[in-house]
Amino acid sequence: MVRLKSRYLLCEVNVSDRSQLLLLDDRAIMVAVKAAVARTHGDYGAAMCSIRFCVKYLNAHTGIVFLRFPKRCYKLLWSALPFITSIETRGQKIPCFLNCLHVGGTIRTCQKFLIRYNTQQLHRMLPKCKSEEEKQQVRTAILSCSLTESKEAFEEDSESEEEEEEEE
Amino acid sequence: MSAAKVKMREKKMRNQPASVQYPSSSSNVESSTQNGADAPGTGKNADPLKGGLSEVHPSTERQKKTPHQSGWVRGHHKDGGGYTKEMPKYITAGAFARARAAEVSAMLKAVRKTTSSSRVFEALPKHMRRRAMSHNTKRLPHRLREVANRMREKSLQAGSKKKKEPAKSKSRKARRRHGNLLLEFNRRQRKNIWLETHIWHAKRFHMVKKWGYCLGDRPTYKCYRACYRAMSSHCLLQDLSYYCCIELQGDEDKLLAALSQLTSKEAGPTFAAALCLSGRRQGSVMVYRAGRYPSQPLGPVTFLWRPRTQGSVHRQLWIWAHPTLKQDLLPELQTVCQCCEAVLPPAAPVEVNPTLEAESEPENTPEAKPVPGIKRKRSRKDATGPPAKKILGDGTRLPSTPVSWRSSSNGLVINDLTMEIVRYRLIGPQSHSVLVDTLEAATGCDEVQKSQTCSLWWPQHCSDEAKMTLHQQQADIFNILKGIYSTSELPSGTVLGLTVDDPRLTLPRKRVKALPCVKQAQEVDEEKRRKLMLEGVPEPCCQSFIWEQSVRDNVTDNKISEQELNRMRSEVLVPSSRLSPTPLQGRVPILLVHQPGKQVGHEMSSWGAGWDLLLPKGWGMAFWIPLVYRGVRIGGLNMSLKHSQNKAAPHFPRDYPDCPAGMRFQEEQEAELLDKFKRHPPAKRTNYIKHGCVAPFRCPWQQLAEEWEIIVREGGSQTRTTAQADAVTEERTSQRAISITKPPSRFTVLRNRKALRLLSAWCRPTTSKGQRPCRVGELPPISCEAVTSFLSAHAMSLVWVHVSLLSKGKPEHHAMLCVPTPEDLKALGNRQGTGGPQEPPHRDHFKSRIKRRKKDPKKDPKKAATSSVTPDKPDGKKADLIFASDLDTNASKDPKSFSESSSDLVLGLWPDPLPSVASHCSRVTVGWVIQGDFSMSAGCGEALGFVSVAGLLNTLLNQTSEHKGKLLLRNPTSLHYRFAKINIEV
């Protein structure tokens, strides 16, 4: 079918102080990306960035961002991302850089990748834990995101049933 | 975005994760439970963070998790995704790990759950799709089958739910069977009564449910002009059976004494007018509440006295009233006649056929059960007749409801004859030829039939010599009608009683146009014709047997059915020849009543005259079809409105704003028009505020009358300008506040003959071509003293005026009638043919308020109202100044009600406390048009409406003689004023 094609960039915001990550919001990231593109590619780039560019998702805890670019010019815009050195939000300037983890054609592929990536990261965290308590918490986290897979499939259907009924 | 779109989007985004971030302003700390419910995916992330601080067990947190999620909203989140927590000081590794895990689960959910907008097979990659997958779930991969099955079941259920009721149990053939069809029809007319011609009309007309009846509004085919032509040159037929007839019986003097309380001689002839009282003419009067002559009118009625029988003072009177008037009139009649004793309908069933009754009783449908008091047609006399009977007469009335009241003190009796008598109206100059063509005076019956004892009424009458001579006289007069050129030649209101043959017998094989026959005209005696034209029908010939209940019932019960008639026709020796002898049942007593045409004004005199045909019930269709076969046009309610408009006569209930029925009509009309207005998209609506139209959907007559009364009282007889009127406005608002305590006097419509005649003479220009020389010699000329004395009596009155435009333009309903300034009149004198002045566009101050309210609906409406009241930009335009000051006074006086009213603001309409209606625009308003259209008889736009007497006289005083009676007319949707001439026609 005919549709507007986009590229979704799954990026990670890397900061030196993790607590600063919580200050982020999507508006700030949008501004930062636009500024970087304008700086590197001039007016042409800024114009490209103004059409159908959007921050689809941001998790302030993990620093995961979904960026949507038009497929036509995503490489051009992508090339400006490494030039982001800081993001200004709530009156603070957070020094950071964006690390692109994945480029997908749909949000769905990005989400799938993110699942894989996150579990992998959790597994990596486990041996590095310093205290027993931490270790325990990480372990439960890993369990929670792996165990539910089989269970959820069953649950979600029953839930959707209920929701449907409520709507009617 | 429309609501449906939003809903759709919500459904689609249900499973998508929302962004997780802290709100920009961390000041508002709300309950975390709400958060948990709103965005649990995020909440789960957040809670552990807090848990890191306050050491809440993570396990309990996890229990709180509810997988329901708020959608994924595009763009910037206003409240940060419902995330309202203070930011933690530091992050632990465990918290971070949990955040990761939460994200994973949210993403998992997003990935795994398909949104319901797509079916299971649609989500499959293309190479796995198979033909007819939606039909046969076995073609799906095994892992998806279960889900697909469930979905399929659900969609099947939804489909069946839509057409919930199963298909009708009966087949179409069964439903269309005559008896079942009648049952169905009877069921359908439980709420709204059907006229006898309903089915004929329903096939050809747009039907409306009005006044408890189903009535044809206008034909589905194009015939507006054709109907007008029919009215002015041939004949237009209407079914007016919905009009209610109330019968009064009693001694003449007692009746007159009772009825005299309802009317007044000042408004024209009353019930006691000599010609009407003799029964030779039909009269029409305006009825008021008992003893409340000018202030509380009820509405117009027509009445008909039964001619006197020798040596008896007992009289019978029929009062015909509109159904909306009946509910007010009947109690009033009961009080004046002191008839409070309801006569219950006879308890014993007067059944012709007891077996029939026994048969139809078991089935419990109330319609099919023969109930005493409701007249039913006996379509068949044999016991095997169809169980369902067609309802004749009033079917909605409960059988126990009394239809007759008797007075114990003076012996008067009131009968409610609603739906008992069919009334057809023929309008047009040729209506008499249609009647003559259709009807034939009843043939007598031969000796053999006379000798038989029979239940039919006609043979009994034939044996009576006196009755037969009377019948002969009536038939002679009826034949004279053939020689008359136009219906309007007869004296208005003439009544002719007659007995006629069943008109179905003489039905032409093809539809023909009835035309006057010249040959027959010459045959008729010239002398007799002249006498008829001058004197009308002599008194004895006005007698008819339709007045007698027993004869009416007899005729109704013994009507030959269509089927029987056709059977008899098929047995005739020569096909399509006339049945002879005429079957005895086919004699019907009827009454012909002449309807006057245009009575007022000089032009088109007696336009739209015609005949009314009164029949006993049950015979409606038997007369309708033969009439239609004479080439008449059929009109609906719409056409009767146009008829009265062309006659310049007020049309009940639309043009009686002071009557209760008229007020109800106005409310209904306003609701209807407002509803229609609101159905347009806001950008396509007319902004009536900008057009300076205060009340586009109704006419605030009371306010207009009050305002003009104050203006006149304050200003005396000085020259009035708009500026002064504005000054008065302020007082009016204050006056109104005072007048709340004492009930203000109601406005009335001026119906006093003398006063009307005087006004009419005053507003006629003394020199004008095309008008007859005025005969106003005996009337006083207009002067300050005369006006003051006139106003002392009729200050709160409105007067019915006929407005004709001088140049082009088509007036619409609720157009404003305004007073021209002297400059306007000068311009009119200088350059004939130029249009009138223009109204400067007004400003819509409510627009910003509506916008503001739309922007933040949470904001206190009261605050919004007061904040926007600030009078901005005094640009010197007068109307705006009034407006601002008005608003200020309103707001300061009664801020509460004002803020309430602002909640139902509609863009382009004034909210409820209307500003001054008289001086709102640059030209002072004196009245409104009620109905207006391009008049095909006059060839220019014509309108009918009311103006305030005080305003009109004030205007007339200041106008020079050549411009006397010239006003400006402006449509609600236009800024252009047009010059118009007003006439008060008596």
| Helical content class of chain A | 40-55%
> What is the element string of chain A, with H for helices and E for strands?
EHEEHEEHH
Estimated structural class of chain B: alpha+beta
Q: Which two chains form the greatest contact, residue counts included?
A: A-B, 54 and 50 residues
Report strand order across the widest sheet of chain B.
6-7-8-5-11-10-9
Q: What Rg of chain B, in angstroms, do the CA atoms define?
A: 37 Å
| Shape annotation of chain B | globular
Care to describe what's here?
- The complex is a heterodimer of chains A (168) and B (986).
- Chain A is an alpha+beta fold and 168 residues long.
- Chain A is 52% helix and 24% strand.
- Chain A has helices at 26-50, 74-78, 107-128, 132-167; strands at 6-15, 54-59, 64-70, 86-89, 92-104.
- Chain B has 986 residues and is of the alpha+beta class.
- In chain B, the strands form four sheets. A seven-stranded antiparallel beta sheet of chain B has the order 6-7-8-5-11-10-9. A six-stranded mixed beta sheet of chain B has the order 13-14-15-12-4-16. In chain B, strands 18-21-20-19-22-23 form a six-stranded antiparallel barrel.
- In chain B, strand 6 and strand 7 form a beta hairpin.
- Chains A and B meet through strand 2, helix 3 and helix 4 of A and helix 5 and helix 6 of B.
Summarize this structure briefly.
The complex is a heterodimer of chains A (168) and B (986). Chain A has 168 residues and is an alpha+beta fold. Chain A is built from 4 helices and 5 strands, in the order E-H-E-E-H-E-E-H-H.
Layout of secondary structure:
The complex is a heterodimer of chains A (168) and B (986).
Chain A: E1 6-15, H1 26-50, E2 54-59, E3 64-70, H2 74-78, E4 86-89, E5 92-104, H3 107-128, H4 132-167
Helix pairs in contact in A: 3-4
Chain B: H1 3-12, H2 32-38, H3 40-54, H4 58-64, H5 93-112, H6 142-162, H7 172-175, H8 178-188, E1 193-194, H9 198-204, E2 205-210, E3 213-219, H10 224-233, E4 236-239, E5 244-251, H11 252-259, H12 274-277, E6 282-288, E7 297-305, E8 314-321, H13 323-337, E9 341-343, H14 354-360, E10 404-406, E11 413-416, E12 421-427, H15 431-438, H16 447-451, H17 457-462, H18 465-480, E13 495-501, H19 518-523, H20 526-535, H21 549-557, H22 562-570, E14 587-595, E15 610-616, H23 620-628, E16 633-634, H24 637-646, H25 660-679, H26 701-715, H27 722-739, E17 748-749, H28 753-762, H29 784-794, E18 797-805, E19 816-818, H30 822-830, H31 846-855, H32 861-867, H33 878-893, H34 895-903, E20 925-935, E21 940-948, H35 949-958, E22 966-970, E23 978-983
Parallel strand pairs in B: 1-3, 4-16, 17-18
Antiparallel strand pairs in B: 2-3, 4-12, 5-8, 5-11, 6-7, 7-8, 9-10, 10-11, 12-15, 13-14, 14-15, 18-21, 18-23, 19-20, 19-22, 20-21, 22-23
Helix pairs in contact in B: 2-3, 3-4, 3-5, 26-27, 26-35, 27-33, 29-35, 32-34, 33-34
